[in-house]
Amino acid sequence: MSDEEILSGGNMEPVVRLGDTVRRVAGPWTPAVHDLLVACARAGIASVPRPLGRDDQGREILSYVDGRMMSGLPPGEMWRPELLTSAAILLRRIHDASMPLVASRRPWRQPAREPAEVICHNDFAPYNLVVSNDGSVGAIDFDMASPGSRVWDVAYLAYRLAPFAEDAPGYDVARDGSREARVAALVAAYGGSWAHDDIRAEAACRLDALAAFTDDRAESTGRADFVSHAAMYRRDAARLRRPRSQDPFTEGA
């Protein structure tokens, strides 16, 4: 349709905006994802999409979450500690709302991981986080959600926002705070009790899985950028497994 706007992202399938709605390819996992979004709505979480059925092409219809993508903010805004803690608080609310769905028999797009405590977003990162005009943080792109542990999502958010990733443009420790302090703030805002080394270890495992997934995507699509992404995830995972005294991303070690 001529009035559809192709949105950024959509690495799995095309995602388009039509008015105040988003349209994307549906699949066997879509009813489970819609259950999750409804659970979020019932918990009073306003900053995630609402499921609105399907269109005449069979695509799912979701409400559009207005705002700016966190990944597109200038560095002085993106790395603000307030956004890090707001994202952690939102993740906790989503996890808590999802708990009744852990035992659901509906299929998810990704396999469940033990311990299955909550429904993980599985890609809770700046490119799926939206910052509204009032500074609150919202989340989109729940298609890869599946049962898993709380720390699985928390560790990936820390990887992206501490940040431990190679591709963290503009992060400035003097302005934005040390990675150790940012991990501590993220865990505290979420309400967890994981130690810094627990987060690093889980993030490394998360990156192993992400690298394998991205390799598969590279093979099926022929996209060279997926190959380079997978290589970065493996480098970052190896670095996170080193003693912190040998990690160039650890300040003051």
Automatic annotation (TrEMBL):
UniProt cross-references to InterPro entries, sorted A to Z: Aminoglycoside_PTrfase, Kinase-like_dom_sf
Superkingdom, taxonomy of origin: Bacteria
Domain Aminoglycoside phosphotransferase: 109-181
Record protein name field: Aminoglycoside phosphotransferase family protein
